[in-house]
Amino acid sequence: MFFIRIFTVLSFFISFFYASADKTVTLAYFKSSIKDVSAKDSKISLEIWVRELGKKIGLKVEPVYYGKIEEFKRDFENKKIDLAIASPLTFIKDMNTSLLTDGFYGGGKDTMQMCIVAKNDPKIKSLKDLRNKRIAVLTNDDIAVLYLDEFLLRNFHKSTKNYFKKIIEVKKRSQGILKIFFDKADAAIVTKGAYLTAVELNPQIKKRVKILKEYNLNLSSPAYFRKDLDKNTIEKVKKAVFNLNTYPKGKQILTIFKISKMVPCSVTKLKEMKKIYESYLKLKRKYEGE
Question: What is the pTM of this model?
Answer without folding.
Answer: 0.81
